[in-house]
Amino acid sequence: MKNPDSSHSPERLLSLDFFRGATMFLLIAEFTHFFTFLHDPALEGSFIYVIAEQFQHHPWNGLRFWDLIQPYFMFIVGVAMPYSLSNRKKRGQSRSQITRHAFQRAFILLFLGWALHCIGSGKIVFQFQNVLAQLSVTYILAFLIMNKPAKVQILFSVLLIALTEIIYRGFPVEGFNHPFVANENFGTWLDLQYGGANLRGHWVSFNAIPTTAHTIWGVLAGQLLMSKRTAVQKLKILIIAGVIGVVVGYGLNPVTPIIKRISTSSFVIVSGGWTLLTLAFSYWLIDMKKRQKWSLFFRVVGLNPLFIYLFAHVGGAVLIESVIHPFTFLLFGWMGTLTATILTSAIVLFLLWYITHWFHKNKIYIRI
């Protein structure tokens, strides 16, 4: 299988590989519960506890770093789409072949997202709130308009956000006409209609509609980075767009609260701003300043993102933890249960990373 590493390809965007890899590294860290253990009440008041709190989703109205991970993922997929489309055209694929592949990929993502909910529940359920199920929708909608002018793509993304705002605020069903109250909004009502409501976590499937903006904005960023503009011009546009998103998003909070769990308009805009700024920083550091060697640690994770996510999600992290747990507690148990647990989790995370490193070293890349 062809090596997708960009080390020798001037056309490949190393900053995107780094951004994707760092995001996936954090996602698989979730399955090791590393940050959860650091957020232990026993550490409350410490600097570690304060930092670890940023790696927990905000309970409702507010924004923490961890709330940006899913927007990052959806945005990154968008950035990669113009590069993927260009490569497929170079290989001689027709528009119909590319479109067919896009729909197949969206279906597989939807199926995997649904299947992961079933595996996690231990029974057949119809829930579509996880990142893969959501991405299946945002990906295909962004794909269908990615050949349109930038203004059309921006307008479409804004219309999706505005439509969501209008539906939530104007939804008339009694008991679900409180747009920004947990489990009393349109999103929850919609999921209840087919038995897929997530009442405990307050997540809703309809999030896929407004967060399509993240993937569309990613496509626009990818098209910008592939353009003939100078690197400085590209960086300026990313920064300006990012700052506008952050300012507007936070500015809307008094009117429309920033709520990640139902992807309010303010959340979509502010998180979109942060994704643009993060890409700008990565592009400046890695592609412009050429600080690249150290980034390989994260890039190897980003070269097999779907595999390592699924592997960790379906029990890979638990399996590794069950194998090493006796040994880590034998070696570190004297330091206390919490410390030994945190160290065990860190080792599991390292071993998950090492799997991606081994795959890269042996040129094994799993794609859909």
Model description:
The protein is mainly α. It has one domain (14-361). 67% of the residues lie in helices and 0% in strands. The chain has 14 helices and no strands. The chain has helices spanning 14-32, 34-38, 47-53, 69-90, 95-121, 131-145, 150-170, 186-193, 212-226, 231-252, 265-288, 296-302, 305-332, 337-361. α1 crosses α11, α4 packs across α9 and α7 runs antiparallel to α9 (212-226). The longest helix is centred in the C-terminal third of the chain and has 28 residues, at 305-332. It is globular and about 60 Å long. The chain starts with 13 loop residues before the first helix and ends in a 7-residue tail after the last helix.
Number of strands: 0
Largest sheet: none
How large is the radius of gyration? 21 Å
Whole-number average pLDDT?
92
State the helical fraction.
55-70%
Summarize the structure.
This protein is mainly α.
Keywords, separated by commas or semicolons:
368 residues; mainly alpha; 14 helices
Topology at a glance:
Layout: H1 14-32, H2 34-38, H3 47-53, H4 69-90, H5 95-121, H6 131-145, H7 150-170, H8 186-193, H9 212-226, H10 231-252, H11 265-288, H12 296-302, H13 305-332, H14 337-361
Helix pairs in contact: 1-4, 1-11, 1-12, 1-13, 1-14, 4-6, 4-9, 5-6, 6-9, 7-9, 9-11, 10-11, 12-14, 13-14
